[in-house]
Specification:
single chain, six-stranded mixed β-sheet, alpha+beta
């Protein structure tokens, strides 16, 4: 199987996933799409689901054929495949390990307990991300969130975790 990332219109991720799955199942029955969300909390909204990587979906396909790619580009909401439409880049190595970890955890990531020290590696010790390791790039004390850099893109996509989800190590 080959794994890729596709950029879609932000806010249209679920709808794109549904449309793409339906439109492409005849070309490759093994094709599967994932859109990851995590539970967030704010005083104003309470608990809600937020995109882990807004505007991005990941997919697997036996092989990215010209026919499959042409059909994917026709799905409403498609922006581009990463790196670009002329040179799609397969997700491999550590990024693929991270993607498979997220796939195994499910598309909706609930609260995890995480031990961390700013500027050092973090590791989830319980919850759906148990065993996940990443890098903290920023701590926002006002919003009580940490920003973690992902391996899923060359530039390093990031995502936030609430402090309430984080346990500092001694």
């Amino acid at each position: 199987m080959e794994y890729y990332c596709v950029m879609v219109l932000t806010g249209e991720e679920r709808a794109f996933k549904s449309r793409a799955t339906e439109a492409l199942k005849a070309l490759d029955s093994s094709a599967e799409f994932w859109f990851f969300e995590r539970r967030l909390y704010t005083e104003r909204r309470g608990w809600f689901l937020g995109a882990l990587f807004p505007g991005y979906l990941f997919f697997q396909v036996r092989a990215l054929t010209p026919d499959f790619f042409a059909a994917l580009r026709e799905v409403k909401g498609f922006c581009r495949i990463l790196r670009d439409n002329q040179e799609p880049v397969r997700i491999e190595g550590g990024a693929l390990d991270e993607l498979k970890f997220l796939i195994h955890s499910g598309e909706i990531l609930d609260v995890s307990k995480i031990k961390f020290l700013p500027g050092q590696a973090i590791k989830a010790v319980s919850g759906p991300l148990a065993g996940y390791e990443g890098r903290i790039v920023r701590v926002n004390k006002k919003k009580r969130r940490v920003t973690v850099r992902s391996l899923l893109a060359d530039g390093g996509m990031t995502f936030d975790l609430k402090y309430d989800e984080v346990e500092t190590s001694d």
